[in-house]
Design goal:
Number of strands: 12
Distance between the termini: 69 Å
Oligomer: single chain
Strand content: 35-45%
Shape: globular
Radius of gyration: 18 Å
CATH class: Mainly Beta
Order of helices and strands: HEEEEEEEEEHEEHE
């Protein structure tokens, strides 16, 4: 019987990228799921992805046409500050504050809901949703009381297909026809 081959260590560059969260696991990709919520017996399609830390990012369309994002940090055991909405950054673009305006952001324990857009005239005009559909990775920056700011990174692999199915309307840049 041949002796087992010794394991080769990861190259230093790959190990560094894995520790920084730049390289995700192969299974991390967006998926279309259906959920029922709030006593509504109808299934609601949602686009969801989980990161390597077990956090989830979900996008869904409400019956009134509002498109909501939801960050679930429960697995990180860190609750976002109840009066602080997250900022979203896609690839190398600058961070964009989410949930501006009345009822645009709701924090409930480890979950943060934020308004991403609204279906009007059979389409959604949202820079954030265009980025989520066409980018390669997204970061959500949120405040944890007493601990400062935290980052939650997610892949955008297969996001376009999942978001399209969950939203059910074309996603356009603001001002586009």
């Amino acid at each position: 019987m041949a002796a087992p081959r010794p394991r080769r260590p990861l190259p230093a560059a790959l190990a560094a990228l894995l520790s920084l969260g730049v390289v995700g696991t192969a299974h991390a990709q967006w998926r279309l799921q259906t959920t029922t919520a709030g006593g509504n017996p109808s299934a609601v399609p949602t686009a969801t992805v989980r990161n390597d830390h077990g956090m989830a990012l979900t996008v869904k369309r409400a019956p009134d046409g509002a498109i909501w994002g939801e960050l679930d940090t429960e697995s990180a055991l860190e609750q976002p500050h109840p009066e602080s909405c997250p900022s979203l950054g896609i690839d190398a673009e600058p961070l964009e504050a989410m949930g501006a305006g009345e009822d645009g952001c709701q924090v409930d324990g480890a979950r943060v809901r934020f308004l991403l857009g609204r279906v009007t005239d059979a389409a959604v005009r949202s820079r954030a949703l265009v980025g989520l559909a066409n980018g390669s990775r997204v970061v959500l920056v949120y405040h944890v009381e007493g601990l400062g700011y935290r980052e939650a990174w997610f892949t955008l692999r297969n996001s376009k297909q999942a978001l399209s199915a969950a939203i059910g309307a074309p996603v356009l840049e603001p001002g586009a026809d």
